[in-house]
Design a protein that fits this description.
The complex is a heterodimer. By secondary structure, chain A is mainly beta. Chain A has strands spanning about 5, 10-15, 20-25, 30-35, 45-50, 55, 65-70, 75-80, 90-95, 105-110, 110-115. Chain A is globular and about 40 Å long. The N and C termini of chain A lie far apart (about 35 Å). Chain B is an all-beta fold. In chain B, strands 2, 4, 5, 9, 10 and 11 form a six-stranded mixed β-sheet that branches. In chain B, strands 1-3-8-7-6 form a five-stranded antiparallel β-sheet, with no helix packed on it. Classes of the chains: A mainly beta, B mainly beta. The interface of A and B includes residues 45 and 98 of A.
């Protein structure tokens, strides 16, 4: 049973370009979360999505960042017109749908490390 | 706003010694999680604590939760070098499903 799959693992962009990060949740999981980790810091929540719905985007910057989780295919975190401050590791996590036995535990992917030159 | 604080932020300890990492959080929660992260790697789930007084042990690590004090501890017994990593606690606010707020992390270095 494959875990959470993220790609690319490493991405280099120049200032002003666009970055697209993809995440496929674990099989059977319908909830996806994106977190950002700056060097030597903890993880900061960005957005929580279910299929075709954004549930909570309270951690997303108001501009340049967007996320989607379409009916078919992976979840995508999109960063437009990247700046150096966007350089970070972006982690995706998934969890099963709510219900009996769901502990709320998140399962994390390997992360996508974005470097903006 | 839910705040989660860990201390110490950095811990250097010799093999064979015991130590405790503390995790305090600022608002009502009934779920607390501990994760381990190796440099450049993902987060590995260690413990899920779901009720007041919960205690879980795995090998040399033991985690506990006191919801009344809003405190969790991660105790390390007879540390070995393989435990060197960064340890994060994370809390979900009651009623917010799986949205987790992470602590700042404790970087543990076990020396020979």
């Amino acid at each position: 049973n494959a875990g959470v799959m993220q790609n690319p693992r490493h991405l280099v962009r120049r200032r002003g370009q666009e970055a697209r990060l993809r995440c496929s949740p674990m099989k059977g999981h319908s909830h996806v979360y994106w977190y950002r980790q700056l060097p030597e810091e903890g993880l900061k929540f960005m957005v929580y999505l279910q299929k075709e719905n954004i549930i909570d985007e309270s951690g997303m910057p108001k501009e340049r960042f967007s996320a989607e989780f379409p009916k078919e295919g992976p979840s995508i975190l999109r960063i437009q017109q990247v700046v150096r401050g966007d350089s970070a590791a972006y982690f995706c996590a998934s969890s099963p749908s709510s219900g009996t036995g769901n502990t709320g535990e998140l399962f994390f992917g390997e992360g996508s490390r974005l470097t903006v030159l | 706003e839910l705040k989660v604080e860990q201390n110490p932020l950095f811990l250097s300890m010799q093999e064979g010694k015991n130590y405790t990492i503390y995790c305090n959080y600022s608002t009502t929660s009934d779920r607390l999680y501990w994760y381990r992260q190796d440099p450049g790697k993902s987060l590995e789930s260690l413990f899920v604590l779901l009720s007041n007084g919960a205690v879980k042990q795995e090998g040399r690590l033991m985690a506990s939760l006191d919801t009344k004090a809003r405190l969790s501890t991660l105790h390390i017994t007879a540390a070995v070098h393989d435990l060197s990593a960064t340890y994060f606690c994370a809390v979900s606010r009651t009623g917010t499903a799986s949205k987790l707020t992470f602590g700042t992390g404790t970087r543990l270095q076990v020396t020979l």
